[in-house]
Amino acid sequence: MATVKVEEINLAALETQLDRICQGCDLYNSAGCKESQCLVGFARKVLSFAAQKKLLDIPGASKLLPTQDFKPYYPEQVAGAIAETCRQCRQCRDNHSPDCVIALVRSALESALLQETIDYPGSVFLYLARIKEQHPQLAALLARELQKGRT
């Protein structure tokens, strides 16, 4: 990941997807909205930090994912955001870091939807194959969302 610069990643596209999830949340703009306890809030903080510090790798951040966020999320909205992480991925393969900004957002979104994360092999194609093995419905949603991004 060392050769990829923050300017090469469309952080705004990721933020737009996260905004859509927030707007669909029952707690959006209420006193019950606790960004520090929310998986999407965590993802938003990661993007903000990356933009501010011009860093794509945040050492140790993968250990900070909120684990007590049990709010319901809409699979279609989350799939769209996961698809955007796939579009932004630079396919680092062996150099993949779980503390990469894109990986952190993807992991938070997977946890929001699945309550588990899928081992990411550093390749979007291999990732989709792994998702299909474990969660065929999510794989179908992701494939549809990724197709939308090509038009």
Please give the number of β-strands: 0
Secondary structural class: mainly alpha
Sequence stretches where pLDDT stays below 50 over 5 or more residues: none
Helix content: 40-55%
Radius of gyration: 14 Å
Beta-strand portion reads under 5%
Q: Count structural domains.
A: 1
Q: Which oligomerization state do the chains in this entry correspond to?
A: single chain
Shape by Cα distribution = globular
**Succession of helices and strands:** HHHHHH
Mean pLDDT: 88
Distance between the first and last residues' Cα? 28 Å
The major sheet is characterized as:
none
Helices, by number, come to 6
Please explain how this structure is put together.
- This is Prismane/CO dehydrogenase family protein.
- The chain is globular.
- The chain is built from 6 helices and no strands.
- The mean pLDDT is 88.
- It has one domain.
- The protein has 151 residues and is mostly helical.
- The two termini are 28 Å apart.
- Helix 1 packs antiparallel against helix 2 and helix 3 packs antiparallel against helix 4.
